Amino acid sequence: MVDKHSQSFFGQSTGLTLVSSSKTEPFIFFKCIKKKPDGSWEKPSLGEGKTIKCNLDEIVMILEVLKRNKDSWSSYHNFKDIKTQISFKWEDIAKQKLLIYIDKYSKMLNFAQTEIFRMLLKHIIKEKIEFATVLKLSPKKGPVGGSKENYEKNKVHEAKELPSVKESIESNDNEVRNINGVIEGETEKALLIQFENNKEIWIPKSVIRSNYNSINDITQNFIIDDWILKKNNVIQP
Q1: Domain boundaries in the chain?
Q2: How far is CA 233 from the centre of its chain?
């Protein structure tokens, strides 16, 4: 059994890499990069691209989608007061292609890639449950003949020094909405979208979680934060 895993999925314009640095760490990384207008790729070493860390809870929920037990799952990843939305959903009812959205990065995996992704995550979660959930205490060794009381105090002291988790996950399947609409106008920071109920609303690009085609008069699917659709009565609260 190896200690590290790394698998990349690249397309014409977007790349997604799954990284597990160690089987003893209860998390994995997703690293996203895209191709620049000049044809070169973003470089994480230069602070480009997007990297997020997913804990065991998230891995389990992603696997539920990959195993086709759920149609979709989304979450807000909160790290150092920066919220990043991640979303995993099937393209359609056939569940042959997986759509992944991480912040402004999107990636589609075909059937073969999805199966590789599923098998790798299944292996990683099993590995981490075995090796990353073990409480590792190293009691300080006192002089030979040290009292049992001092030994117990050392154990309590070391337990208190264990690192605390400083990341949180705010999961809610209803925080985003798949909805159809037509782009009627665009500014640098917003899209004017006419939805199927004939409501025409300016939607900030910061709450649109999917890629879109800026050409007018084309009905397309958007993934948009629920709250702004409810606020503008596009959907019922």
Answers
A1: 5-131, 174-231
A2: 28
Whether the CA torsion 20, 21, 27, 32 is positive or negative: it is: negative
CB-neighbour burial class of residue 161 (10 A; exposed 0-12, middle 13-18, buried 19+): exposed
Cα of first residue to Cα of last residue in the chain, in angstroms, is 49
Q: What is the DSSP string of 143-191?
A: STT--HHHHHHHHHHHHHTSPPP--EEEE-TTSEEEEEEEEEEE-SSEE
Residue 72's DSSP bridge partners are 89
Rg (CA), the chain: 22
Topology given in CATH for the domain delimited by 5-131: Transcriptional Co-activator pc4; Chain A (2.30.31)
How many other C-beta atoms are found inside a 10 Å radius of the C-beta of residue 203?
21
Predicted pLDDT of residue 166: 40
Model's pTM, two decimal places?
0.60
pLDDT at 98 over 70: yes
What CA–CA distance (Å, rounded) separates 8 from 24?
21
Strand partners, 2: none
Hey, what are 114's tokens?
């999805």
